[in-house]
Design a protein that fits this description.
Helix content is 2%, strand content 45%. It is mostly beta strands. The chain has one domain: Immunoglobulin-like (Sandwich). Strands 1, 5, 6, 7, 8, 11, 14 and 15 form an eight-stranded antiparallel sheet that branches. Strands 2, 3, 4, 9, 10, 16 and 17 form a seven-stranded antiparallel sheet that branches. The chain is globular and about 45 Å long. This is Ferric-chelate reductase 1.
């Protein structure tokens, strides 16, 4: 396992931003994944919960995806999107607290190699980020524009496997990502077509952490997953 590396920058937000995450709309207006199965994020302290809603994709930019994430960690929780769990990459969206800074909420994105499970620095546009930390409970909401599972810009695909997991944070150092759940293939633009619970058995934990800087805005294009951005 690679050692944790101190990040030089991250997006930081107010600790008391209003965030309310429930199961309302699961299977009808939003795709939901959770562990334990069917747990209630509004009242279950052990519930690791994520949801996603994708607007209709527009070529060549892809779809805009609204994400909610809720879980317990003294470090971070994360939601990942991948087109293929065994190869290519997973795009990770990390909601975290900095224990050395009073538990202040911060957010960042990383890329996980699906072959060796290592994390690496990446940058993808994310907007409307809101986060709340209350003890070990972390809740966050954010919007990811221009999401496309296809490597071909003229082909729009909103079908992904969704990963949920967590990991440690020491100061601004991100530790290994431990996968708690990996879903089957879910179409983020068609919640009703996926059913209310389509998740499969958890996978083993991933490893690695990276130096992550928000100095650049990069176009992420990978073999199994691409997030395209057009100015």
């Amino acid at each position: 396992m690679a050692p944790a590396v101190k990040a030089t920058a991250h997006l930081s937000f107010a600790n008391n931003t209003q965030v309310s995450i429930t199961r309302a709309g699961c299977g009808s207006t939003k795709v939901c994944v959770e562990t334990p199965t069917d747990c209630d994020p509004a009242g279950n302290d052990t519930c690791l919960f994520g949801s996603a809603v994708a607007a209709a994709p527009v070529a060549p930019n892809g779809a805009e995806v609204t994400v909610q994430l809720r879980g317990n960690s003294t470090g971070y929780i994360a939601l990942g999107l991948t087109a293929d769990q065994t190869q290519g990459n997973t795009m990770l969206f990390i909601c975290a607290q900095n224990s050395s800074d009073g538990g202040k909420f911060f957010f960042r994105t990383m890329k996980r190699n699906n072959t060796d499970k290592m994390l690496s620095a990446t940058e993808t546009p994310v907007k409307e980020i809101r986060g709340l930390v209350n003890g070990s409970l972390i809740q966050c909401e954010f919007v990811v524009p221009n999401v496309n599972a296809s490597t071909t810009r003229n082909t729009q695909d909103t079908s992904f496997k969704v990963l949920l997991g967590s990991g440690p944070v020491t100061g601004s150092m991100i530790g290994a990502f431990a996968v708690a759940l990996t879903s089957g293939v879910l179409n983020l633009a068609d919640p009703s077509g996926n059913g209310t619970n389509t998740t499969v058995a958890p996978t083993t934990a991933g490893a690695g952490s990276v130096l992550h800087s928000y100095a650049l805005l990069l176009l992420l294009g990978v073999v199994a997953l691409s997030f395209t951005h057009r100015a």
